[in-house]
Specification:
Length: 333
């Protein structure tokens, strides 16, 4: 009787120990992050939320292959750079393909404010078929820094082409939520990163996760885990489908630099129908916006024209150079 009791006690201790090992050393069987749309604790943000102040207005696309293991299929081809700009759900999507990426810019720089600062939208048709992407930001268009993504998805079995993913097992990966709902990102997580000004984010880069669990093709999160998502997706619409990037916190007009002399931007104030000149020989592009973020005009020279029909008032001039970008208040008389 005593021996039997001891054996039962030992078996229970072994079971407890096994559960502890599973919990602490095999975390991918337990979800720990925000759940899908509609459930308590979800961080999904609707495209129609009034929290969005702006949307990406320019985007550069570099396509990836439909299937990185079979180059004969060619590259993903659905959509184009115009599909990724504007409000989510209005301009279609652009498919990035395996490892493809998009670099988007905005009417005004994104800034680190209270809570989440921007959100990335994908077009998943439900809460479980999730195609994922890494997200990086830059304040100069050259140096990009990645949000610390984490995947707890099991990597023993490959997620099939139309396989399912549990949202509670992924964090800081775009595509966590179904179409119409953005995955939000908080710039505060990157505070203190050298060469990054989280108060002046000019570029957001979205990079498709190659979901293969084969070592040769796998992409890994910030903890070295393979990120297992639907693979292969050997279609023209393969890979992450970027719908839009919505801005939650952006530089306000009080943060725009005011020019007190003519050393850089002149004349200022400026008359309608005249030109504003920028005293920077390395300027690559000039964009003029109203205070609602709508583009008025643009130029690839060191001067930009002020339309004759423009109302008098305050406008924003965005100057992009090879090394950095800056924003200035322009007074139109």
């Amino acid at each position: 009787m005593y021996l039997h009791t001891m054996q039962n006690g030992e078996n229970k201790m072994k079971q407890i120990l096994l559960l502890a090992i599973l919990f602490f050393f095999v975390p991918n069987i337990f979800g720990q992050y925000a759940p899908k749309v509609g459930e308590a604790g979800s961080t999904a943000i609707s495209k129609d939320s009034s929290i969005f102040l702006n949307w990406a207005n320019q985007c550069k696309i570099v396509r990836g292959l439909q299937n990185i293991t079979d180059t004969t299929l060619g590259y993903a081809s659905v959509g184009d750079s115009l599909s990724a700009i504007g409000k989510a759900g209005e301009n279609g999507v652009v498919s990035l393909g395996d490892g493809g990426f998009a670099i988007c810019t905005f009417p005004q720089p994104i800034t680190n404010g209270s809570g989440y600062d921007f959100a990335v939208f994908e077009n998943s048709f439900d809460d479980s078929f999730l195609e994922l992407a890494f997200v990086e930001v830059s304040s100069d268009g050259i140096n990009f820094f990645r949000f610390p993504a984490h995947s707890l998805i099991d990597t023993l079995i490959q997620t099939a082409s139309f396989g399912l993913t549990d949202a509670t097992k992924i964090n800081n990966l775009a595509g966590k939520y179904r179409g119409g709902y953005g995955t939000p990102f908080d710039l505060e997580e990157l505070a203190g990163t050298p060469d990054l000004d989280i108060q002046n984010i000019t570029h957001v880069k979205v990079i498709d996760v190659v979901g293969s669990i084969e070592n040769k093709f796998a992409t890994r999160d910030a903890f070295g885990n393979k990120v297992n998502d639907p693979f292969p997706t050997p279609f023209p619409s393969g890979g992450f489908d970027l719908d839009a990037i919505g801005v939650i916190n952006q530089l306000s007009t009080t943060s725009i630099l005011e020019i007190a002399d003519f050393s850089l931007v002149f004349p200022n104030p400026v008359m309608k129908g005249k030109q504003v000149f920028v005293n920077k020989t390395d300027s690559e592009k000039l964009n003029l916006y109203n205070l609602q973020g709508k583009e008025i005009s643009n130029s690839t020279t060191s001067a930009i024209e002020i339309p004759e029909s423009l109302n008098s008032g305050i406008y924003v001039l965005f100057i992009q150079t090879k090394e950095h970008s800056s924003t200035y208040k322009i007074v139109v008389e």
